[in-house]
């Protein structure tokens, strides 16, 4: 039957797991709102198209006036009057465009950020860091000894690695995702697969390193066991060499203690 302490530890592990899942999702929630009420939304992109249309209409009017002037269809005075009229119409349209653009951008603002998705993006990483700190505090005061706990916490660590790697890559590639030298899907594939690779390989590297470290510790333990117990206890040292061997043990001990 599970004791109260074991039950509490199990509940804590489950609670940490819930927090890990919640925190690891936070940096990604913004993706859902990135194209809603932001400069990446279809509404805003459609409005931006008006800018080029206004310029094209103005330039077309200028070209028409120049052609008519070259053909002699209009006088220089008529050209000047009509050029100023086209310029005024374009300037008025651009002012209206700029005003509507500002109104759209202002409508997207949320809690001091230019868009709701930017607010989620900004708060997601600190929440992830906060939960990671709680994770570390728990492991410091509750050392992980059981094999099942080590597996569970390794999975938690991999989730953290995935989220953190994604955010780092997203920050580095932010200006290239929608206008880089390579196709857009290339950058999305990097964001999708590289964090998975990091999340899977780093824990394995640490496990491999720990295995090597444990083997080295075992070899060193055997070495010192032979020096301090097996060799003296089995009379492998000649009587006349015992003093030299004692000095050798003292020298080895001093070096080990001195290196700690």
Structural features, described:
- The protein has a domain at 39-114.
- It is elongated.
- It has 260 residues and is mostly helical.
- It has helices at 4-33, 42-71, 76-108, 116-141, 147-173, 184-233, 242-259.
- Helix 1 packs parallel to helix 5 and helix 5 packs antiparallel against helix 6.
> Biggest β-sheet: count, sense, barrel?
none
What's the total number of strands? 0
Along the chain, the helix and strand elements come as HHHHHHH
Tally of helical runs: 7
Q: Roughly how much helix do the residues carry, as a percent range?
A: over 70%
**Outline, from the CA principal axes?**
elongated
Average of the residue pLDDT scores: 78
Strand content: under 5%
Which class do the helix and strand fractions yield? mainly alpha
From the alpha carbons, calculate the radius of gyration and give it in angstroms: 35 Å
- Work out the oligomeric state of the chains in this entry: single chain
Compute the separation of the termini in Å: 43 Å
